[in-house]
Design brief:
10 helices, 2 domains, alpha+beta, 328 residues, Peroxisomal Thiolase, Chain A, domain 1, four-stranded mixed sheet, binds acetyl coenzyme *A, 26% strand
Amino acid sequence: MNPNPRHTRIVGTGSYLPARRLSNADLVRQLAAQGVETSDEWIVERTGIRARHFVDDGVNASDLAVHAARHALEAAGCRAEDVDLIIVATSTPDMVFPSTAAIVQRKLGVHGCPAFDVQAVCSGFVYALTVADAMIRTGSARSALVIGAEVFSRILDFNDRGTCVLFGDGAGAVLLRASDTPGILATDLHADGRHVDILCVPGTVSGGKVLGDPLLKMDGQAVFKLAVGVLESTARAVLEKAGRSTEQMDWLIPHQANIRIMQATARKLKLPLDKVIVTVDAHGNTSAASIPLALDVAVRDGRIRPGHCVMLQGVGGGFTWGSVLLDF
Ligand code: ACO
């Protein structure tokens, strides 16, 4: 047994949204011009989304990640050169390789510490946080930047109204530090590769060409049903591991995909809706960025305060899902 158990604490949060905001009305107009019919009413009623942000040409996931990381570093009063691990969760990396994390490291003007990407789609941030927590607790790192950054607008099929209205671009980041007190209380991760096909971007690069379709495909109803079931089970699992009850939770920050999935999860957990942080209305689904974005919004507006018990929950392509329970 380790006589000096280490814990991991979040000591700073940050986020960044590209300036170009499209309300549902803006998107409906843009889609109508290309013959795709949708409406503000349909989008709001089925998803809770009212607006999303899209990057301009030439802006990549690493650019959003760097802004979010700088905000998290500033909040923690930490210099980039004092970070000794960088993990970026993304499904929309700048390039095939090197990792977006290595590009972020260069843009932050530092070098030497390990930097790598985690690819678990909308669960990417809870996966990355779990890896960073393990590395800190085993002594491989004392501080870590964990970032979720996405430019999903690059992989949307704007002729498919069932998916192109759902997603947005953005980034969120946390700075973690080793601590004598928790911090992260418990983590719980899962994947079920039998469901690879229900949410995917099947294209790949081969011989200098794109093989297959490089745009997002989704069976929305299959995703919906799976998501609600696994979010309840992983919530119960992580609470049990931490020896906490739902009543002891101050906040739930679920992956921001769809307000109906969040409401169904809260109902199953018997958690009042005013304990659920919701940003999907303003951001759309920003995949791996959605949880740290929502966390940063709620920290900066004063809802989440030191000592609060917070559950973060991811779910998405793979199929992947998981939770992190922490004392903020
Ligand atoms: N505007 C207007 N009508 C639409 C639109 C649109 N944007 N999209 C689909 N429709 C129509 C369909 O064509 C269909 O019409 P029909 O009945 O004439 O055939 C009708 O609406 C119903 O379509 P469904 O796909 O059955 O609609 P559903 O109620 O399932 O809602 C949705 C679709 C919102 C995608 C839902 O299935 C869902 O939320 N799924 C969860 C998926 C999700 O959130 N994914 C995000 C990524 S995964 C993740 O992050 C976990």
